[in-house]
Every structure is written in C-alpha cells, then in structure tokens.
From TrEMBL:
Catalytic activity, reaction form: octadecanoyl-CoA + 2 Fe(II)-[cytochrome b5] + O2 + 2 H(+) = (9Z)-octadecenoyl-CoA + 2 Fe(III)-[cytochrome b5] + 2 H2O
Documented EC number(s): 1.14.19.1
UniProt-listed InterPro entries: Acyl-CoA_deSatase_haem/ster-bd, Acyl-CoA_DS, Cyt_B5-like_heme/steroid-bd, Cyt_B5-like_heme/steroid_sf, Cyt_B5_heme-BS, FA_desaturase_dom, FADS-1_CS
Cofactor entry: Fe(2+)
Source organism of the structure: Neodothiora populina
Protein family: Belongs to the fatty acid desaturase type 1 family.
One family name in Pfam for this protein: Cyt-b5
Transmembrane parts of this sequence: 60-79, 85-104, 203-221
Protein name: Acyl-CoA desaturase
Lineage of origin: Eukaryota, Fungi, Dikarya, Ascomycota, Pezizomycotina
Length: 480
C-alpha cells in the first residue's frame, strides 16, 4: 500500500478503484449502518448551526468514548481499588491493547502476518474488549488513512487538528462518501471478521465489561472493582492510548524516512501505544510486522507476534529487507543535507561570473582593487587583506598575479576552509581559453562527466574539489 498520498487536487483515486462498486453498497455485506442511504444528502454536507449542531454529533460514540468513562470516574470515588484488581486491570489493558495493535492493526488492516484460527478468535475477542469499533470498520478506515494520509479522504487527518485526529473524528459524524475508498474484500472473506462485525454489541458487552468483571468477581470476590476498574476505566485508558496512534504519532517526533507527510517516530508514543510509536517507519513500510526495527526500541506488539510465531500460532511474518529500509533513511538524510547546503554561501556559480581580460585584471589590481587570480578565477580580497591569517604581506604579494601555485602550496598549502572562503569572494573568470578550462575542470571533478547538483539545482562542492584546488599547478592564462 503506497504511503505517499497524492496532494489535494491531484488524481487522488486510482481509476481502477472508481470502477469498483462502493464497499458500502452491497447488501450481502455487513454494512456499518442499515439506515445509510448514499442518495440522501449527508448531515456533514450542511454547515453546523445553533439549530442543527446536535445532529452533527455522533451520540453513540460520545457515550462510548466520553460518557462511560465519566460514569466510571464517578463510581471510582465509592469503589475501593484492591491490588489484585489493579494488576488484573493492567493485564487486561495490555491484552485488549494488543487486540487493537497486533490484531486490528497489524493482522487485519495491514496483513503483515498470518494467524491461525485460535489466535484470530483471541485477537477479535480482546480487540472487541477495547471498544473501538469492529475489525471491519476499523480496518477499512485505517486502510483509507494510509492510502490518503493527510488529505480530506483520510478519516483522521491530523491536518484537521490534533484533537480531531485523536477523537474528534469519532465524536463528530463523518460522511462515509468523503472517506477514501479501499479494498476490504479480504476482510469480507474472513469469517472471524464478519462474525465479529455482525455481533459487535454482544462482543463489546461480553469482552469489554462482563468478562473482566467475572474474572475479578469469581477470582477474589471484587465484582464492583472488576466492573469499574478492569471494565470501564480500563476501556477508557486503552482507548486513549490507542487513539494516540492517530494523533500523537502524527504530531510528535522525528521523520527519519520521509518528511512529506505527517507520520513521526517517538519513544513516548511507542510507550503509550504498545509499540506503535515508530509511525514514520510504519507509514513507509506498512506491511512490515514490526514498527520498531532496533531491538532495544519498545515494541511489545512485535515481540508478541514473534512469540506467537514460536508457539506456532502466527506465520508468514512480513519484513522489509534492511537494504530497502536504509535506502529510505539515506535519501531522507540527503534531503536534509541539501536543505542545509542551500542555506550556505558557496560563492557565485562559475557560469554566472563575468569574463575578464587578463590585462583588465592587472589594470584593476594596479588601481587599488585587491584582485587575486587563482586557477583562472578572479577573487576580490580587498576587505579580507586585514583579516588574512597569514598576514597582510603574504596576501598582498598575490594581488594582480596568477596566484594559483602560491595558493596551492607554492607559498602555503591552504586549507579546505580557505578554498571555501575564497570561493565566496570570486568576481570573475579570466578570458583566453582559460574560462573554458575552468568549466572543463569543474565538469571533470565528477567522474561521470557532469556537475553533481543537489535537489535545488545547486552544485555540490565536495571537500578538496573546489575549483581553486589545483594539485599540480598548471600554467595560467597570464603565464601562457
Ligand atoms: Zn498513521
Ligand atoms: Zn497502519
């Protein structure tokens, strides 16, 4: 799945996709909402006003995401928290979080590995316990998020604000027609996915509330604590944690692989999301079962998938070759380097320098202008004479002469920094065939016979490859 999305105004949809029937339309499929009629204008097509604002709100989601946690917090005031219940709530938080990260995300949305039926059932059950929608609904939106990252077709585009990408997109109604189309035929063929979608409310009640309550109640008699802490408040925590993949992971951190879109890598996001924090990597290599590629980076989702593989529960773990990963990293480094290079003064490009007669050069130098010719390039050092590290006398000795040999070891073997500094003072090129020689030399610096330029079209000048650097000083125009 490509992670670089076309910008607004570009051909955002693959023409082959347009020909496909809408994934919402088929009656044989488990649809998100039976009342949805694609022909009627959607509420989101109308502006929000004082009269209709409540119609824009998805009240069911408000209840699931905000209402239940508020009730849980109120109930917690009267409910003592026992250590056993706390530990159980934490374990169940981890399990239901894995249901989302290893199940919904890496298994179903990205098919980054394959799972046996028992593992699928486990992930569909605990993923349902996280109360974040069905696998089918979640994965469909997530595939659109990858396909159309940061565009209007991205269901949780961070360009609409951090809070919107975190939960605003669920609290406010969305137009199903706006969200980019994706192929979910594989999910419609997966009986576990279809069953979970059709029985979603039952799964939520059973795995979100009843099961954690039963464990604490039957286990150590803490029915109320199990319900409040391992049920309600644990749902709140796991929801907020996994929502961070859509918000924090597109907002905080570095972009080592590509900075054209918003996904970022950060340890804090990784800690909050069971390892989904290396999101710049993930958007570049979405079908890799890993998010963190270095062993010490926190990615318990990856570790779990690996353990399941050892147990024979997971197989076909997909992984990009490190050669491909490093290529992306190098290109991004190169881009940063080019940006940095573009901010520096490398002197007037040789092609833009005026051509000067040798006699004119000597004449101007005699009249008091501090001109020095090195390798056929004329430099105006008038303002630099007093600052010359080798003293005024030395630099003055070169004025009005061909100082190529002097500069390149005849008198003093100038440093790389000196060649760089000299290039910022260049004002002309000597005529007499020599300017052609200079350009030829500049070309010859590159093995392939042409000047290497960065992405901004600026010539890349490597250390030791400045045009004034002459290993064996050649006869200049003046001497010839
Ligand atoms: Zn993302
Ligand atoms: Zn993803």
């Amino acid at each position: 799945m490509p992670s670089h999305q076309p910008a607004a105004g570009m051909m955002a949809v693959d023409p082959d996709f347009v020909k496909q029937p809408s994934p919402m339309a088929k009656t044989t499929e488990p649809n998100r909402n039976k009342n949805y009629d694609p022909k009627k204008p959607h509420i989101t097509d109308m502006p929000i006003t004082k009269k209709n604002w409540y119609k824009h709100v998805n009240w069911l989601n408000v209840y699931f995401i905000l209402g239940i946690p508020v009730m849980g917090m109120v109930a917690a005031v009267w409910t003592p928290l026992y250590l056993k219940t706390f530990v159980w709530a934490f374990i169940y938080y981890f399990a239901t979080g894995l249901g989302i990260t290893a199940g919904y995300h890496r298994l179903w949305a990205h098919t980054s590995y394959s799972a046996t039926l028992p593992l699928k059932i486990f992930l569909a059950a605990v993923g349902g316990g996280a109360v974040e929608g069905s696998i089918r609904w979640w994965s469909r939106d997530h595939r659109a998020h990858h396909r159309y990252t940061d565009t209007d077709k991205d269901p949780y585009s961070v360009r609409k604000g951090l809070l919107y990408s975190h939960l605003g997109w669920m609290v406010m109604k969305q137009n199903p027609k706006r969200i980019g189309r994706t192929d979910i035929s594989d999910l419609n063929d997966d009986p576990v996915v279809v069953w979970q979608h059709r029985n979603y409310i039952k799964v939520v009640l059973a795995m979100g509330l009843i099961f954690p309550t039963l464990v604490a109640g039957l286990g150590w008699g803490d029915w109320l604590g199990g319900f409040v802490y391992a049920g309600i408040l644990r749902i709140f925590v796991v929801q907020q944690a996994t929502f961070c993949v859509n918000s924090l992971a597109h907002w905080l951190g570095e972009q080592p692989f590509d900075d054209r879109n918003s996904p970022r890598d950060h340890m804090i996001t990784a800690f909050a999301t069971l390892g989904e924090g290396y999101h710049n990597f993930h958007h570049e290599f979405p079908s890799d079962y890993r998010n963190a590629i270095v062993w010490y980076q926190y990615d318990p989702t990856k570790w779990s998938i690996w353990v399941w593989k050892q147990l024979g529960l997971a197989y076909d773990l997909k992984q990009f070759r490190s050669n491909e990963i490093e290529k992306g990293r190098v290109q991004q480094l190169q881009k940063k380097l080019d940006q940095k290079r573009a901010t520096l003064d490398w002197g007037t490009p040789l092609e833009q320098l005026p051509v000067m007669e040798w006699d004119d050069y000597i004449e101007q130098a005699k009249n008091g202008r501090g001109l020095i010719a090195v390798a056929g390039v004329v430099h105006d050092v008038t303002d630099f004479i007093k600052d010359h590290p080798g003293g005024k006398a030395m630099i003055k000795a070169g004025i009005g002469k061909d100082a190529t040999a002097m500069f390149n070891g005849g008198v003093y073997y100038h440093s790389n920094a000196a060649h760089n500094l000299l290039s910022t003072m260049r004002v002309g090129v000597i005529r007499g065939g020599c300017e052609v020689e200079i350009w030829k030399k500049a070309h010859a610096d590159n093995k392939e016979g042409k000047i290497v330029k960065d992405e901004f079209g600026n010539r890349i000048v490597r250390a030791g490859a400045q045009v004034t650097k002459v290993i064996e000083p050649t006869a200049s125009a003046g001497a010839a």
